[in-house]
Design goal:
By secondary structure, the chain is mainly alpha-helical. The protein has a domain at about 45-120: MDM2 (Orthogonal Bundle). The chain is about 55% helix and about 5% strand. The protein is built from six helices and two strands, in the order H-H-H-H-E-H-E-H. It has a two-stranded antiparallel sheet. The chain is elongated and about 100 Å long. The N and C termini lie far apart (about 100 Å). This is DM2 domain-containing protein. InterPro entries: SWIB_domain, SWIB_MDM2_dom_sf, SWIB_MDM2_domain. It holds the Pfam family SWIB.
Length: about 120
């Protein structure tokens, strides 16, 4: 009776497979070590100083400001006056000054607010 003996080459194949897997992992590691992206530059359109209308100037001041600063000042005013709706924080309840900016609306969403504010900038 002939018995099948294991050939010595069989364990060598398994050992050769492990280094191949390690080689595959190396390119993925190299891809993760790429240079970090350059810091974002602000868009010049957002940084241009805009003059607020008389109505908006009551909230943010009359000096020309970039759009980003106008939005920050409006949010500061909203938080200081506690004008965010308690149930739905995305909604802004307008007081007399903001009602004039919002076109007479008593309540607007924060997304609609930015559009309404941009109408008051020149």
């Amino acid at each position: 009776m002939a018995t099948a003996k294991k050939s010595p080459a069989a364990p060598a194949k398994k050992a050769a497979a492990k280094p191949a897997a390690a080689k595959k992992a190396a390119p993925a590691k190299a891809a993760a070590e790429k240079k970090p992206a350059a810091p974002r530059k602000p868009n010049a359109a957002f940084m241009k100083a805009m003059t607020p209308s008389d109505v908006l100037a009551q909230v943010v001041g009359a000096t020309p400001l970039p759009r980003t600063e106008v939005t920050k000042k409006v949010w500061d005013y909203i938080k200081k006056q506690d004008l965010q709706d308690a149930a739905n924080r995305r909604m802004i309840n307008a007081d007399d000054k903001l009602k004039a900016v919002f076109g007479g609306k008593a309540q607007v969403s924060m997304f609609e607010m930015t559009k309404l504010i941009s109408d008051h900038l020149k």
